[in-house]
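Anyone able to model this chain together with (2R)-2,3-dihydroxypropanoic acid?
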Amino acid sequence: MPAPKLSVVVTRRLPEVVETRLKELFDVELNETDEPFTRGQLAAAMQRADVLVPTLTDVIDAALLAQAGDKLKLIANYGAGFDHIDVQTARQRGILVSNTPGVLTDDTADMTMALILAVMRGFKKGLHIMESGEWGGWSPTAFLGSRVGGKRLGILGMGRIGQAVARRAKAFGLQIHYHNRKRVHPDIEAELEATYWESLDQMLSRVDILSINCPHTPATYHLLNARRLKLMKKTAYIVNTSRGEVIDENAFTRMLRAGELAGAGLDVFEKGPDVNPRLRELENTVLLPHMGSATEEGRIEMGEKVIINIKTFADGHRPPDQVVPSML
Ligand code: DGY
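re: yes, here you go
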């Protein structure tokens, strides 16, 4: 008799091909409405499923994990970031956690470059005047932005995405500087002509653009606090396609309003969609709704990764993208 299929609960709508394949392989419950699960729905799903497929909109903390059923053995996150999951507690309770790294690297790096260009070249003003129909024609002194080429880009977090940003930025003539927990391999530094800064503070005071590409962990929460932000040049720009929690958003907003920073391109916010209204009002910001990895191809590849992680687990092996607390 064939082994019973694993019961899998998926908390959000996924691309159709991914849902179809999940249905073929597992005893799957899909979320047809795409409404994020309430905490109660999440707790109930964790009681009845062998495998939960959450996304970054599901906060899976110690209290929720304490209510999980004995059946729950794998949380196969649909997404690379796993800061919404208490991996340490999951591990203590014998629940594996996996994610989907690698497949959203290029899309996120593309979006980082798009934000650098958008904020430095004043897309917001340009779009606004075109959409309002008020454009009166070309003028030598209108819409002057800041040249991108030749500037110093500081990359905070030189993992896969940071390196992909550096490759693109180099092609735009930017000089690459970076701060990372660990210095990257000398071959990568040589390829990117990248300067390593052991001290984040020192790097901050020297760069013209800062790109945040590190994950949100207890160590990076508000890494860019008011003190560090004040080290930056008044003419500097910040771009964030990682997680909003890395910046103290209130301090940052105050500084942008006071002209103590030149501008910001942000795809992520400290409180998700609850964006500080003062940030939205500013002329020198370009804000996007967490769409850095949002391509059709990327979302399907993320689903394929989830399926491989569950399938490998079902076959009695460790999921290839298992995350462990030491990665925090
Ligand atoms: C992730 O996968 O963590 C991304 O932030 C989703 O865009």
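The mean pLDDT is 97.
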